[in-house]
Structure formats: structure tokens, C-alpha cells
Write a structure and sequence with these properties.
This protein has 384 residues and is of the alpha/beta class. It has helices at 22-26, 39-42, 46-56, 73-86, 97-112, 184-203, 209-231, 236-255, 260-272, 276-291, 296-305, 315-332, 348-356, 370-382, and strands spanning 11-14, 32-36, 60-64, 90-95, 121-122, 132-136, 148-153, 158-163, 171-174. The protein has 2 domains: 11-179, Rossmann fold (3-Layer(aba) Sandwich), CATH 3.40.50; 184-382, Dehydroquinate synthase-like, alpha domain (Up-down Bundle).
Length: 384
């Protein structure tokens, strides 16, 4: 028996073409909108569609597109200055996790002042951020429904986690059609990111019954659809299911936590600037191998959700099928090796130190320290 809490401050509007509702949603919050996005999303024409919808309800819009794949504190500074100069009273984050996380961080600075580095950790934000509408264009981060922002401290080369319910978006407009333009590699990387959120949200020490149910559903949806969208990005049905999975995973880990995979992947992203999703992917099998004995029952259920036949197996043997399923999936998606991503032997200790300093360490289902992280990084390096 377990006492628990569940929080979802964001209202969700989900479905094909719901992007067309953004004007009606936005007019409830402000008249001057700063659209936070990146140069890749600008090329898709989505921002133009949004700007047109806003104009139809007499909302002025400016665009800030200086967002990097791993969002930086410097971009937050630049974006918050632009927002203040424009006198924005509404933020719209359009893109993957980088754009939406940057929009959240800009909202913090607009209300609190200072630098985003001042707010690292949980519940250091004291005021609600500027109203934010989140419009994800990838099926991966789930950040549209979480109250966390991950921003790179450029001086430390360290990914900071900033979290508070006061940072949640007012509305998440989740439109699967916006993922139809994603290249196959980004489709794979963001899809694995959503899978990691599901697995870690399900197995973290802070997991609870509602997050467990959402996470298992997300794992099954991803298992059934990620290969389909990788093979054919125009498969709208599979895109729909992947977007739904990503969102459910975001709600799950937002009420539970992430764990060792994020500790390792964010260490790599901070040092090498590797894309978040692929960093998660290369670390995932080693963390599962390490964590599996902490809760074989849950890992056996993950294996089943991933499509493995566990009939007649012991709980531990069924749990180990999870590793087989993950390695098969990473192979089918052509996920590169850790060394191909830039992992270097001389950096392993530094990466282990950064991983051990991550706020998610305490939520890992099996106790671990810097030496354990070093061992996992070494395995990732050796298994090139």
C-alpha cells in the first residue's frame, strides 16, 4: 500500500490539426506572443501557420529562433531580453524539447529576473512563469506536459535541471501531424527518448500507480509503432500513436522521475553536445542491465510490453528479455555506438562525475555512485 500524489497543471488538447486552434487558445492569455523555436522548425512552415492564426485574433507575434539542440543558458538570456523588449505577455514554444524547455526558462527569467543558472534544482522558482503554450513537433521529450526544463550551463558544460510546478505550460497543443516532416534519424532518437522516459518513469523509486499505468501503456505504444515511423515517416496512424506515447511518458516521469540513463546521457550531452535522444539510446542497455535485479517484476512487465514472449519463464529470466528487446530495437533503428558519438576514454571519469552529480541519481531503483557510472561508461566505450 502506498500514499502518493499526482499533478498535471497543463491542459492537453490532442489530435490531428489541433494546431489550428492556437489562436483561440492564445487569446485567453495575452496579446503579444513571443514564439520560441529553432531554425529547423522555421523551415517547416509551422511558425508561419501559427503566426497567421494569432493574427486572426489580433495577437502580435515575434519569433525567437536562436535555440540550439541542447539549449544553452546564453540562449535563455537572449530570448528573455527579446521577450522583455517586445513586452511579451505570452510565450509559445514550438519544436522539440529544446525549444519548449527554452521557452519555460525564458518565462522564469521574465518573472523572476537574474540568470537561469540561479534556479537550478527543484522548487527554486517562486513565481508562475509567463503564460506558456507548448506545441511539440517531435514525439520524444514529453516536455509539453512536465514542469522541468533542462538547460546547459556553458561554463560548466553541465546540463542543469530546473523544476517547479510553476513552470508548467498552461496548454499543450499536441498535434501528431507536426511530426510528419521529421527525418528518420530524429524520429528514432526522439522515439527512444520517449521510451527511456517510460522505462525510467516506471522503475524510478518515486513511481506510483498512476504513473506506472501511463508508462506501461507508453512502452507498448512505442514498441508497436517506432519501427513503423522509422520505416515510413508518412504513416500518420503510427505518428499519432508515437505522439500519444511521448505525451503519456512525459506525464508519467513528470510525476515519478528519471534515473541513471538520464544521468549518463545528460553528462554526455553537456560535454560533447550530442543530441539528447541518441545520448539516452547508447546508455539505455547498460543501465537496464545494472538496474534489472532491483525490481525483476517490473522489468519483466517491460519485456512483455516490448513484445517479448515470457510465457513459462521465471521472473528474472523474463526480466532479462528486456535487454534482448532493447538491443534488437536499437539495432533496427541504426542507433550509433557511443564512440561514434564521440565518447573518449580520457573523459570517462569526468562523465562519471557529472552523472553522479545529476539530481536524478536518488531516484534510480538501484543504489549507485560515481564508480558504478564509470563502470557503465567503460562498458559503453568497450562495446563499440
Amino acid at each position: 500500500m502506498q500514499n502518493f500524489q499526482f499533478l498535471l497543471p497543463t491542459r492537453i488538447v490532442f489530435g490531428n490539426e489541433v494546431i489550428n486552434q492556437i489562436g483561440e487558445e492564445a487569446k485567453n492569455f495575452g496579446k503579444r506572443a513571443l514564439i520560441v523555436t529553432d531554425k529547423g522548425v522555421l523551415k517547416t512552415g509551422y511558425v508561419e501557420r501559427i503566426t497567421q492564426c494569432l493574427a486572426e485574433v489580433q495577437i502580435e507575434a515575434e519569433v525567437f529562433a536562436n535555440v540550439d539542440p541542447n539549449p544553452r543558458d546564453k540562449s535563455v538570456d537572449q530570448g528573455s531580453k527579446k521577450a522583455q523588449q517586445f513586452k511579451a505577455d505570452l510565450l509559445i514554444g514550438v519544436g522539440g524539447g529544446s525549444a519548449i524547455d527554452t521557452a519555460k526558462a525564458i518565462g522564469v527569467i521574465m518573472q523572476e529576473g537574474g540568470k537561469i543558472n540561479d534556479y537550478e534544482g527543484l522548487d527554486r522558482v517562486n513565481k508562475p512563469i509567463t503564460p506558456l503554450i507548448a506545441v511539440p513537433t517531435t514525439a520524444g521529450t514529453g516536455t509539453e506536459v512536465t514542469f522541468w526544463s533542462v538547460i546547459t550551463d556553458t561554463k560548466r558544460k553541465f546540463k542543469m535541471s530546473i523544476g517547479s510546478p510553476l513552470m508548467a505550460a498552461k496548454v499543450a497543443l499536441v498535434d501528431p501531424t507536426l511530426t510528419l516532416t521529421l527525418p528518420k534519424d530524429i524520429t528514432a532518437y526522439t522515439g527512444i527518448d520517449a521510451l527511456v522516459h517510460s522505462i525510467e518513469g516506471y522503475t524510478a523509486t518515486l513511481s506510483q500507480p498512476i504513473s506506472d499505468s501511463l508508462a506501461l501503456t507508453a512502452i507498448e505504444l512505442i514498441s508497436n509503432n517506432i519501427r513503423k515511423v522509422y520505416a515510413n515517416g508518412k504513416n500518420l496512424s503510427a505518428r499519432y500513436e508515437m505522439m500519444l506515447a511521448s505525451m503519456l511518458a512525459g506525464i508519467a516521469f513528470g510525476n515519478s522521475d528519471v534515473a541513471a540513463v538520464h544521468c549518463m546521457g545528460e553528462a554526455m550531452g553537456g560535454l560533447y553536445d550530442t543530441p539528447h535522444g541518441v545520448s539516452m539510446a547508447v546508455c539505455l542497455p547498460y543501465c537496464i542491465e545494472y538496474n534489472l535485479i532491483s525490481n525483476p517484476e517490473k522489468f519483466a512487465k517491460i519485456a512483455q510490453a516490448l513484445g517479448e514472449n515470457t510465457v513459462g519463464l521465471s521472473t528474472l529470466a523474463a526480466a532479462k528479455k528486456c535487454i534482448v528487446a532493447i538491443r534488437d530495437l536499437l539495432g533496427d533503428l541504426n542507433i550509433p555506438s557511443a564512440r561514434t558519438l564521440g565518447l573518449q576514454k580520457q573523459d570517462l571519469k569526468k562523465l562519471a562525475e557529472a552523472a553522479a552529480a545529476n539530481v536524478a541519481v536518488e531516484s534510480n531503483p538501484r543504489m549507485l555512485d560515481q564508480q558504478d557510472f564509470l563502470s557503465m561508461f567503460q562498458r559503453a566505450y568497450d562495446n563499440d
